[in-house]
What does this fold into?
Amino acid sequence: MSAEYLAQEKIWFDKHRYDEAERQYYERMNG
Amino acid sequence: TLYTYPNYWRSYPALIAAQYSGVQINIVSEPLESDAFLSRFPFGKTQVPVFEGEDGFQINEGTAIAHYVSPESLRGSCLQDSALVQQWVNFANSEIVPSVATWVYPTLGAADYNKQATERAREHLQGVLSVLEEHLKTHTFLVGERVTLADISVVCALLLAYTQVLDPPQREGYGSVTRWFCTCVQQPQFSQVLGEVQLCEKAELASATASEMDF
Amino acid sequence: TLYTYPNYWRSYPALIAAQYSGVQINIVSEPLESDAFLSRFPFGKTQVPVFEGEDGFQINEGTAIAHYVSPESLRGSCLQDSALVQQWVNFANSEIVPSVATWVYPTLGAADYNKQATERAREHLQGVLSVLEEHLKTHTFLVGERVTLADISVVCALLLAYTQVLDPPQREGYGSVTRWFCTCVQQPQFSQVLGEVQLCEKAELASATASEMDF
It folds into this structure.
């Protein structure tokens, strides 16, 4: 399987980090 | 009933869609941590917002909930329109949300600042705005001649960017997008949910002295 | 006409959906880099696959194309089912794809290996599989009593995981998911597109000696 076009994809590798940050932020904001 | 954090941008599409359909939504913001809640909703709190109909019908994820409470006109009245609505909704989720989160969350203190990641996110968002600009030069709305879930989803995805970081210099060159954005948020169904939306005058910056992390 | 890279998993949902509807799809794999292509498709090659109908109707993004070429039964024949289909499709795009890509792409040489990121992706995917396991213990398919775009999208999102890294030990505890996955890929409409799908026997590993990068 050619990996060249897979390598061009924009994958949000950090998604979990931002999901967690978002969750904590909104929980903090709302006590 | 919509279980959600208050003022949570991921809930806005569903709430705005409900304004168009007249579906009455009761917002519940607590307690999202209880065992009773988690046992009823297998996705747990990671999937807030969560919707439960009067008949017990449950659905997760902001865009899917918006789809459910929308009138048909918002979902696209013919197959081509509904497919285009899908296209723009997915575009919002996969092309806009990551960049906006990466750029804006550090300015809210929600995530650590990383100069390289922020710069990449800013460039990517400019690419997104260019695509929108081209389209909106010749279209009033994203799909068809009136507001659809496409406009609602993309507006909500761009909301934090437009209010926190896209100051006048950053908005330059995207006049059609800004015109469209303002037209949308001034619709009564949008303003009922969003209130008055103030475009960014001076970009919020993440503190450069905050700890920098390599992502 | 579907413009796509050959054997590109993001195109599979549309191709499988077309098997259900009988829509004839002509696959074109080049030139996706040419100016002619880029000028016709404003989203550019970053949005491959791209679909163009005989009437000139264009649509981008795999899931939206799949929606367009699907029969109504795949999209969900009533409002509740179509909303649930949305839910699972968005779940596939936002909860499954990033983790599968993070874990699997390095094993294909398509991304740099990062031990920490891989481990987090693996754990996240296990959470995803747990959610699916719970649901599929009591349901044959994700929505309703037959295959929908929900099954198609989630199967295609999990494909690389099931073939590259989810070896028998990793699949333990997710018997219902694996049963459902195998049921789907053995449907003639799936196998016409995917060929014979071999579940992973021995997990592919990214080279631990390759340069490690913090993402």
In short: Chain A touches chain C through 16 residues (CB under 8 Å). The radius of gyration of chain A is 16 Å.
